[in-house]
Amino acid sequence: MKKNWKYEIARDSMAFGSILFYLIVLVRSTIGEYLIFVYQLSIAITILILSSFIVKNANHHLARAFVLVVFTSLFYKDVSFTIFAALVWVFMIGSAFYIKESKKSIYNGIILGVIAALVGYYLSLLIS
Questions:
Q1: Residue 91: how many other CB atoms lie within 10 Å
Q2: Do 114 and 66 touch, CB atoms closer than 8 A?
């Protein structure tokens, strides 16, 4: 059986928003003096987990990936990295459409990601 390589790449790109990838970034950020980054990621994932009980029809991979794009870009403060990360996220959105995720799920995931990033950012300022 011949596999559709475009579908496989699209599906694999969604792994950037997986909970395991998010946890790898979070755990790595605990090594060193990056507490604000740890707070941002921890608060955002808490918001996303809580929201998953309320909002059932959302692409949480896109939401988590958006949070990672925002906070890693703020952390590295490098335009090239930010452009690259943003392009990967845009590719993920295209991939979600390609693998036939519902539009509502995609839009809800984007909105949840934005909300989680904003809450994570502002609450981390209060903590630090």
A1: 15
A2: yes
